[in-house]
């Protein structure tokens, strides 16, 4: 079963949102629908109209009121609409009832995001992750696929052939889900093996709201990265890691990761755990923020909440406000500079303040290093060679038969170095006292 598909034809779409002032004001829903229109455009649909209904409680059958459903029915027929997209999640029953009334496709925000991920998936791993999320989203909705058969009642227990087909399909989907999870665990183990050698090098991950400019920044800092970047949501699904040379004779590994978004489907978060592991294993994060977006502070909070959800417990994060060249009001930059004094303000597209950003990365990396001084016997060439290969030796002096080495090393390597020193010292003592 392959659920990853894409359509080339542009569809005509209608967007639907619910507001319940004062908790969810109409202005906020309008902002959400603007983002939903951007999502629809990314998926290949043109938004014709948006509908907003004031409703405290959702209708259990249609989500919106029956009057609004009737209004939508007339509009859909008149404008020959292909697709109705709800900003809020629909239950399987609500989706079926709406499709029956509107006589067109009906999906919710989660379904739309899953479709975009399906279009964007390029690598085998990303395709498996997307398919897993799609199947888990589809599983509780399968009952609507066979309603034409379930009407044929059987004898004992009224178990008709429709229900038999549903159970068969559910079993196939569950088997496929189990297989995909197994394959993704194997991919994750392979990834851990491949990245084990990187542990001696500081790792930095780019995180942020989708379309904040992470891939553009990746290309600006590491020109050889060739990360795919365009003005579309979720342009990047696969993690890309490149070397970044700093001015302090240090090297870091910089990774670009999938963007976050409001109401990011939980099934996607779970499916992309192996990709998001890059974020969990990073020594610190660069939180890229689109300062030109009117709701950028809300987006910042969404990213922070998502980071907590995937298990990021530290606060080793540098806020990077991007797209300062797109600001129409320069006072915003002054205000945000005062509000976020430890942040850096850049334009990845124009290369503004990138040297300052690299300097801040260098300062963050330097905090992770410690300076040590040891005395080693000249015959212990293995330890001396290892220190030159795995640390930054900044001073060397000969005192009689001893070599005094001063070096900088990552703090997480200190225990390993102490073990090497103790081991080598034991070998020397054993040799001296046979």
From TrEMBL:
Q: Which residues bind GTP?
A: 208-215, 234-238, 256-259, 322-325, 347-349
List the keywords (alphabetical): Cytoplasm, GTP-binding, Magnesium, Metal-binding, Nucleotide-binding
Necessary cofactors: Mg(2+)
| Gene Ontology MF: a single term | GTP binding
Q: What does the entry list under GO cellular component?
A: cytoplasm
Tell me if Coiled coil is a UniProt keyword of this record: no
Location in the cell: Cytoplasm
Any idea where the Hflx-type G domain is?
202-369
The UniProt record gives the binding positions of Mg(2+) as 215, 236
Presence of the UniProt keyword Signal in the record? no
Q: Name one Pfam family in it.
A: MMR_HSR1
How does this protein assemble? Answer: Monomer. Associates with the 50S ribosomal subunit.
Recorded family membership: Belongs to the TRAFAC class OBG-HflX-like GTPase superfamily. HflX GTPase family.
Q: What is the stated purpose of this protein? A: GTPase that associates with the 50S ribosomal subunit and may have a role during protein synthesis or ribosome biogenesis.
Q: What is this protein called?
A: GTPase HflX
Query: Which species is the source of this protein?
Result: Pelodictyon phaeoclathratiforme (strain DSM 5477 / BU-1)
């Amino acid at each position: 079963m392959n659920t990853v598909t894409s359509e080339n034809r542009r569809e005509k779409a209608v967007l639907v949102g619910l507001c319940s002032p004062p908790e969810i004001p109409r202005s906020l829903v309008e902002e959400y629908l603007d983002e939903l229109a951007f999502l629809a455009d990314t998926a290949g649909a043109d938004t014709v109209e948006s509908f907003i209904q004031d409703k405290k409680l959702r209708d259990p059958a249609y989500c919106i009121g029956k009057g609004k459903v009737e209004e939508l029915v007339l509009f859909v027929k008149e404008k020959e609409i292909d697709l109705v997209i709800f900003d809020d999640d629909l239950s399987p029953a609500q989706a079926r009832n709406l499709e029956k009334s509107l006589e067109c496709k009906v999906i919710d925000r989660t379904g739309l995001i899953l479709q975009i991920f399906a279009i964007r998936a390029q690598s085998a791993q990303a395709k498996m992750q997307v398919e897993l999320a799609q199947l888990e989203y589809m599983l509780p909705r399968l009952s609507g696929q066979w309603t034409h058969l379930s009407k044929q009642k059987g004898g004992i227990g009224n178990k008709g052939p429709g229900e038999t087909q549903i159970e068969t399909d559910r079993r196939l989907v569950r088997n496929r889900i189990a297989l995909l999870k197994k394959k993704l665990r194997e991919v994750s183990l392979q990834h851990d093996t491949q990245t084990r050698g990187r542990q001696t090098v500081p790792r930095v991950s780019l995180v942020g709201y989708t379309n904040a400019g992470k891939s553009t920044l990746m290309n600006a800092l590491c020109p050889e990265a060739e990360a795919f970047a365009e003005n579309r949501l979720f342009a990047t699904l696969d993690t890309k890691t490149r070397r970044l040379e700093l001015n302090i004779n240090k090297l870091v590994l910089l990774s670009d990761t999938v963007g976050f978004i409001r109401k990011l489907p939980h099934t996607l978060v779970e499916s992309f755990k192996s990709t998001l592991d890059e974020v969990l294993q990073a020594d610190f994060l660069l939180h890229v923020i689109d300062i030109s977006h009117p709701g950028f502070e809300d987006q910042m909070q969404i990213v922070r909440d998502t980071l907590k959800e995937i298990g990021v417990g530290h606060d080793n994060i540098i806020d990077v406000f991007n797209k300062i060249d797109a600001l129409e009001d320069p006072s915003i930059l002054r205000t945000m500079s005062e509000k976020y004094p430890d942040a850096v303000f850049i334009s990845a597209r124009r290369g503004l303040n990138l040297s300052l950003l690299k300097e801040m990365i260098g300062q963050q990396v330097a905090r992770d290093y410690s300076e040590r001084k040891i005395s080693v016997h000249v015959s212990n060439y293995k330890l001396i060679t290892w220190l030159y290969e795995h640390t930054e030796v900044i001073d060397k002096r000969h005192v009689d038969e001893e070599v005094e080495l001063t070096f900088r090393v990552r703090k997480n390597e200190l225990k390993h170095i102490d073990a090497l020193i103790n081991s080598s010292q034991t070998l020397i003592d054993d040799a001296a006292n046979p």
